[in-house]
């Protein structure tokens, strides 16, 4: 590893750029970049890709020094993959061990980019489907350790609970980004967040114990990050 970079969290590295804390992941597809990110190359040729917290809710959590329950051996269900900006960093993290990410997206255009990304990386399973209907991709996804969700839809917490009922192992973690304006443009974001949290805590499909809530500003304004653990059925 370069003198510039040091391990920060499993599969994530930190460096200082002009005194500023900057995140990196080890490039699992050397020679290619995904969204114009910078590359640092080690003496032995290992590439590290910079991770922009303004382009990624998950990146913002790491940047805010939150302990993120994601390890390189995790099985991950990623809802709202878009064209794979953040999925690519998750793929880098998982490539350090034997992890896999199932990446769900329902819009055609970003899906094309996601499929091209998955062709270069063997730990991404792209799924063209609707996250509100987990029964459709149930046959393609194994039980997972982590659900990461960034879908910007009205009923974000309910979508997470529905997917957790199908796929999340008991004691598995949910990492959720809630965009207040997608739930209700007119309502005070604080009210929206409180209601979404209530849904996570008490839901007929699956319920969660909330471990942490994080304001994602200044990287993502009016967005809240939630880290939660799935309650057992008893
Ligand atoms: C904010 S973007 C995600 C950005 C991405 N997580 C990243 O960091 O690179 C939200 C994405 O969720 C997708 N989406 C919204 N509702 C969805 C649904 N019900 N099922 C699948 N994808 C959905 C949208 O098409 C969009 O690409």
From TrEMBL:
GO molecular function, one term: rRNA methyltransferase activity
Domain of life, source organism: Archaea
Signal peptide: none
Gene3D superfamilies xref list: Phosphorylase Kinase, domain 1, Vaccinia Virus protein VP39
Entry-linked InterPro entries: Fibrillarin, Fibrillarin_CS, SAM-dependent_MTases_sf
Xref: Pfam families: Fibrillarin (PF01269)
Stated name of the protein: Fibrillarin-like rRNA/tRNA 2'-O-methyltransferase
């Amino acid at each position: 590893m370069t003198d510039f970079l040091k391990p920060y969290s499993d599969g994530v590295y930190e460096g200082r750029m002009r005194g500023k804390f900057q995140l990196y992941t080890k490039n699992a597809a050397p020679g290619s970049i995904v969204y114009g990110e910078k590359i640092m190359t080690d003496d032995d040729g290992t590439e590290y890709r910079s991770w922009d917290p303004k382009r990624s809710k998950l990146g913002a959590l790491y940047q805010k020094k939150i302990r993120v329950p994601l390890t390189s051996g995790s099985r991950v269900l990623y809802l709202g993959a878009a064209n794979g900006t953040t999925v690519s960093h998750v793929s880098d993290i998982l490539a350090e061990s034997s992890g896999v990410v199932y990446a769900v997206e329902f819009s055609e255009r970003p899906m094309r980019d996601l499929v091209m990304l998955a062709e270069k990386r063997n730990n991404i399973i792209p799924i063209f489907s609707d996250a509100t209907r987990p029964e459709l991709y149930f046959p393609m996804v194994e039980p997972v350790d982590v659900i990461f969700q960034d879908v910007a839809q009205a009923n974000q917490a309910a979508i997470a609970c529905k997917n957790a009922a199908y796929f999340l192992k008991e004691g598995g973690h949910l990492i959720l980004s809630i965009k207040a304006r997608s739930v209700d443009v007119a309502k005070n974001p604080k009210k929206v967040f409180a209601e979404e949290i209530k849904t996570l805590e008490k839901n007929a499909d699956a319920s969660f114990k909330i471990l942490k809530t994080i304001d994602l500003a200044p990287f993502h304004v009016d967005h809240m990050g939630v880290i939660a653990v799935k309650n057992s059925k008893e």
